């Protein structure tokens, strides 16, 4: 409507102005034409009657003259007609001559164009025509025409012109509006489509839009600029929450389906006699992704590793989870013992795990393990294709178990957007070169659209490795790898936890947790407690932290019997020799240290080598005075973040290894080198002595950081980047299809 007015109002104004200027001109012109016609008519009448009138004059027959004049006066336009024999005589007339017109005045009214007189009856035209008598003057004929018909005609003409202009105005307005609307809509749609990455497209059912060609490259530049500005704006705009993440999925990705693929499943069904227990595994990956899937829905494909997993699924191997309020589908994949041994225990955990962690355990690579790794990755790829409801799903590939999967998915679903996240560190190029299948692994990973690591350091290591191992172009300005005509963005996405934590985890008060945990372990109320929570893994630095506890007690004997370190160690990867040895070594170390301080009424170390559900873990976090994370090498370490999240009382101290990704985000923790037992012992002492005020100040800073940089932001940023990539990819595809510039490689995703 507004658009229409914008066109119509100016048009009507122009037409009105036009009418205002033109109508008087038309009026003048009409009058002139009629005056000329009437004068010609007067001359004609004079010529016609001249001879008859002269005959009557000569015969002195005035009554015949009057008869002739009366005939002339019958014409409706003739107001009066008179014959003046001479200026001095009285006129012989028919009709009523105006009083100002007499024979004496005839001279002044003579002339070819006549004279217009105003009269009460309307305008009159007085035309005087001299008559001849045998070659000499013979008086004059005075003709007075009634011009009121001219005024009537002029008014009519004005009315017609007015209606004509009005009609013209309406038609032109309507045409203008329709055309304007059509072309405006076309431009808006075209421009929008361009900005969405769909412009310049020529779907088979749409006509070509050549008018967009000249602006295509400008728009492309614009899109890039907007995208580069957009992330900081988006991040500022959102307080990242499940709702914000849902909005990203809905707005940026139009509710596109999300498929997560990982080795570890989020819920494990375990048989306990007759009963089936549901367990949540000790896994940073699961901790991070489970709230994301609850928010985004979709399908999570994982290895069904629980003893009762098969009993819980439907005939498509699916089960809706979480059990107490289903929000997404878990699709389980079954592995044979042989497959699990080669792919999971062998290549992933005896090969890649030690390869990527600097923990002084030599990686073991066996061809038979590699074969199983390839085979199982291929099976995961087939399952992704089975579960995908569209040709261009968003697939989130998780971790080192599935390094070949991105390429395999890309080959089966070329338009998929594949975001791969590597949850563990990426080693330097020299270390990675140890792997006999290094090129195959890199090739597999570079099937991804986006490849994420926790830290910039790991991104840099990856780019260095690609540079060294593959014929690829590494762009360190944009952090992209161009390989096999496709682009992969390599980006840092520091993983985090759900914030605020689920209410169940904080339901029991800190005071109650303190009391319950101390009673459970037969410790007095004022007993200081340290806590460690890990998978029982040699990268976690459990030995190092227990040695630091021993050192603390050596250096501060007053703490013996008054401080206990509780270590929760969830059994993991049982059957791998290194793990078995490690777990035995830790058990022996605990026994030795406890024996050394056996004279004390309370043991210095309590080792809980068992799986603990999150509620139980949070109870320990809330009961403790200090939490120690002493990983020798860790991508992020979410235990550190969980401890901070658990402490809504703003108390407790975090001692954190400098070799974790988390140390870069949480400098308010006491940062230690886990290999330095004295430094760790001093950190424990400082933590136990730290005044409440300082604990609160540090805790607040760490809590606000984790609150802001929570796991919804982690996932949201990846999805926003994926959306931008999909749009850009579509735009470039269409440009290429229409013969636009196709010089640079396409993002490795979407619509190709
Ligand atoms: O976060 C690293 C990680 O290896 C995950 O990939 C894995 O789920 C978790 O630790 C636990 O390991 P696992 O799945 O072998 O028990």
Molecular structure report:
This protein is of the alpha/beta class and 752 residues long. It is built from 23 helices and 24 strands. α16 (542-555) packs across α21. The longest helix is centred in the N-terminal third of the chain and has 58 residues, at 2-59. It starts with a helix and ends in a 5-residue tail after the last strand. The relative contact order is 0.08. The model is unreliable at 196-208 (pLDDT under 50). It binds 6-O-phosphono-beta-D-fructofuranose. 6-O-phosphono-beta-D-fructofuranose binds at residues 264, 283-285, 399, 423-424, 535, 572-573. The site of 6-O-phosphono-beta-D-fructofuranose has 10 residues, from α7.
């Amino acid at each position: 409507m507004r658009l229409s007015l914008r066109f119509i109002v100016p048009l009507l104004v122009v037409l009105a102005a036009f009418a205002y200027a033109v109508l008087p001109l038309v009026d003048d012109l009409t009058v002139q034409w009629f005056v000329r016609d009437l004068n010609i008519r007067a001359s004609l009448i004079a010529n016609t009657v001249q001879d008859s009138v002269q005959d009557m004059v000569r015969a002195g027959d005035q009554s015949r003259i009057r008869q002739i004049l009366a005939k002339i006066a019958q014409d409706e336009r003739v107001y009066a007609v008179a014959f003046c024999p001479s200026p001095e005589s009285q006129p012989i007339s028919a009709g009523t001559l105006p009083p100002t017109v007499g024979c004496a005045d005839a001279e002044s009214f003579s002339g070819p164009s006549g004279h217009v007189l105003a009269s009460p009856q309307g305008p009159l035209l007085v035309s005087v025509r001299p008559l001849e008598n045998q070659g000499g003057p013979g008086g004059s004929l005075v003709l007075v025409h009634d011009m009121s018909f001219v005024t009537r005609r002029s008014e009519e003409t004005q009315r017609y012109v007015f209606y004509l202009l009005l009609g013209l105005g309406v038609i032109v307005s309507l045409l203008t509006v329709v055309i304007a609307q059509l072309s405006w809509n076309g431009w808006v749609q075209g421009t929008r489509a361009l900005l969405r990455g769909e412009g310049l497209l020529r779907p088979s059912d749409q006509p070509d839009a050549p008018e967009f060609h000249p602006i295509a490259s400008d728009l492309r530049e614009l899109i890039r600029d907007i995208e580069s500005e957009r992330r900081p704006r988006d991040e500022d705009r959102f307080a990242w929450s499940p709702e914000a993440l849902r909005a990203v999925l809905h707005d940026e990705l139009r509710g596109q389906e999300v498929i997560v693929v990982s080795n570890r499943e989020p819920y494990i069904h375990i048989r306990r006699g007759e009963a089936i227990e549901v367990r949540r595994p000790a896994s940073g990956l699961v901790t991070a992704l489970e709230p994301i899937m609850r928010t985004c829905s979709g399908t999570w494909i994982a290895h069904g590793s629980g003893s009762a997993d098969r009993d819980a699924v439907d005939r498509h191997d699916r089960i809706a989870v979480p059990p107490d309020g289903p929000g997404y589908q878990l699709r389980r994949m079954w592995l044979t013992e042989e497959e699990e041994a080669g792919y999971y225990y062998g290549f992933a955990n005896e090969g890649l795990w030690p390869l990527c962690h600097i923990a002084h355990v030599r990686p073991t690579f066996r061809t038979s393990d590699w074969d199983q790794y390839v085979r199982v990755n291929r099976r995961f790829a087939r399952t992704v294709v089975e579960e995908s409801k569209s040709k261009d799903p968003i697939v989130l590939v998780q971790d080192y178990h599935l390094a070949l999967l991105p390429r395999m998915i890309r080959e089966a679903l070329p338009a998929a957007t594949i975001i791969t996240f590597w949850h563990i560190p990426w080693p330097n190029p020299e270390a990675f070169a140890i792997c006999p299948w290094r090129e195959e692994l890199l090739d597999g990973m570079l099937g991804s659209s986006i490849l994420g690591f926790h830290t910039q350091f790991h991104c840099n290591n990856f780019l260095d490795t690609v540079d060294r191992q593959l014929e690829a172009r590494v762009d360190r300005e944009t952090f992209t790898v161009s390989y096999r005509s496709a682009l992969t963005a390599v980006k840092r996405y520091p993983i985090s936890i759900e914030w605020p934590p689920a209410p169940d985890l904080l339901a029991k008060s800190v005071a109650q947790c303190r009391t319950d945990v101390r009673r459970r372990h037969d410790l007095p109320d004022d007993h200081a407690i340290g806590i460690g929570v890990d998978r029982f893994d040699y990268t976690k630095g459990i030995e190092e932290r227990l040695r630091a506890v021993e050192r603390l007690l050596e250096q501060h004997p007053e703490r013996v019997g008054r401080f206990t370190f509780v270590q929760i160690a969830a059994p993991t990867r049982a059957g791998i020799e290194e793990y078995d040895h490690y777990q035995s070594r830790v058990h022996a170390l605990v026994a030795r240290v406890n024996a050394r301080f056996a004279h004390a009424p309370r043991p210095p170390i309590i080792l809980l080598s068992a799986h603990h559900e999150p509620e139980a873990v949070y109870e320990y976090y809330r009961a403790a005075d200090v939490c120690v994370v002493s990983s020798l090498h860790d991508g992020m370490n979410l235990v550190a973040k969980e401890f901070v999240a658990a402490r809504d009382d703003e108390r407790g101290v975090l001692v954190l290894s400098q070799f974790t990704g988390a140390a870069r985000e949480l400098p308010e923790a006491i940062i230690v080198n886990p290999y330095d037992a004295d430094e760790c012992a001093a950190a424990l002492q400082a933590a136990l002595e730290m005044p409440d005020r300082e604990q609160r100040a540090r805790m607040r800073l760490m809590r606000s950081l984790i609150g802001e940089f929570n796991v919804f932001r982690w996932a949201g940023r990846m999805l926003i980047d994926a959306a931008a990539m999909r749009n850009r990819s579509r735009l470039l595809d269409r440009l290429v299809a229409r013969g636009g510039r196709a010089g640079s490689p396409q993002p490795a995703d979407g619509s190709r």
